[in-house]
What we know:
Oligomer: single chain
Bound molecules: zinc ion
Helix content: 25-40%
Amino acid sequence: MTFDLLKKAVTEEPVLKLPDYTKPFQVQTDALDFAIGGVLLQDDHPVAYESRKLNDTERRYPIHNKEMTTIIHCLRVWRHYLLGSRFVIQTDNVATSYFQNHKKLSPKQARWQDFLAEFDYVMNYKPGKTNVIADALSRKAELATLTRVTCDFADRIKEGLNHDPLMKNLMEMAREGKTRKFWVEDGLLFTVGNRMYVPRWNSLRREILKECHDSKWIGHPGTHRTKAIIERSYYWPNMRSDIDAYVRTCLICQQDKVEQAKPAGLLEPLPISERPWESISMDFISALPTSEGCESIMVIVDRFSKYGMFIPAPRDCTAEEVGRLFFKHVVKYWGLPRSIISDRDPRFTGNCEDHVKCYRIRRSGNHNSTFTPVYISGSKTMGDPPSPLLSVNPETFIRHWSSIEFIEL
Ligand SMILES: [Zn+2]
């Protein structure tokens, strides 16, 4: 007996059956204000269901276009069932049933006709009353769009009214008509968007946050979705920052959070320098008390010998100034290093083009700034500058002439 019932249950609606490609298909569709639905049938038994919400643009369509949107959507989804055999489309809109015979088409309707051209179909009118399944499907999706958070908080909000002075003031203002942003309805305070004002009383706000974030029906959504859900029904001042703080500190969210940031690569050790002043590191110690017009110290350390140089620098040290100090205190005595390790401070990375040009330095794009000096060779005397360099920038050249003397000549 039970087995017979079971057999009956699995062979009847709403259980789907497998499609039989030798038999003709029927497509039933229906559209409502917010949602559309359709069912694919064979011998009056459903093969597939389909429903979805309409987007903002589609909601503004006239009803016959909504119906056509439904048909196009269903045919797109069931294309693999319907191509190659003749089928029937049943719609509950008379105007839509004459769509094939329309003489004057809008560009959108022309596109639809173009899409429908690959199908072999007949369109019939079927009143809504007989089109039960599709109607129910579109209503179900429509209900889903209208769902709001409503709990038994209303009574407690009323109770909390006397405990929140701000809410009391607002209610008085609303009653006296001094504000248009708030109004009173059934002893509750409402604001724009028909949202209920929640008083600051007895962890009421926290309970709402818990209900809209921790419950099983919602399942810990992120900040944006939690905000959207709560803001649909409730309002209180600074609610967004409260929601932010709540979601940020939710233990379950923290434990299950998916890391969005790209994982950092392996640490690459720096190459070991082989001789002094081949590779140096550079950084600033800043925000020091002013002394002789300087408020920071530029620290340069040779990575081979750990010899450190501490150069006083002004507070707002520009890239140009860094370059000047670098040449004055480092290059002059030790020559140009092959690599400079820095924290990619713009003062280092955007460094002293002029100075570099003067030394004919080739710069390669490594992870550190790497300079390869091309030394000036010549048999000129110390007071006789190499003439091609003068064409770069005479002023810069003269400024560094002393450095070149000491290093090379
Ligand atoms: Zn959470």
